[in-house]
Amino acid sequence: MGPGSVAPGAPVTAAQCVSYVITCNAVTTPNNKVIQIGVDQIIGQALAGPSMAGRSLSATVVCNGDGVLEGVDVVTGNRVTLTNAYCSVAN
Known about the structure:
By secondary structure, this protein is an all-beta fold. It has strands at 4-11, 18-24, 35-39, 46-48, 57-63, 69-72, 79-81, 85-89. It contains no helices and 8 strands.
C-alpha cells in the first residue's frame, strides 16, 4: 500500500451523507512507480489510475440513495459500491 489521504467533502444528499476525495500520493523513489486507487481488495477494479510514473491520483466517492459509498470503476465505467479504498503501488 502506498501513501495517501481521505478528505470529506460537502453533503450530497438530504440525509447529509458526504462525498470523500481519496488521494494517492506520487511515489517518486525508487524509479517513479506507477500507482492506482483500488477498491475493496478486488483485482481488476480501480477508482483511478494507473498513473503516469511520479504523479499523484485522486478520486471522489459519494453516498448513494442507500447511504453506501460508491464510485466509478475506471476499468469498466460501472458504478461500484465500496467499503474501503487503497493506494496500490507497482512492484
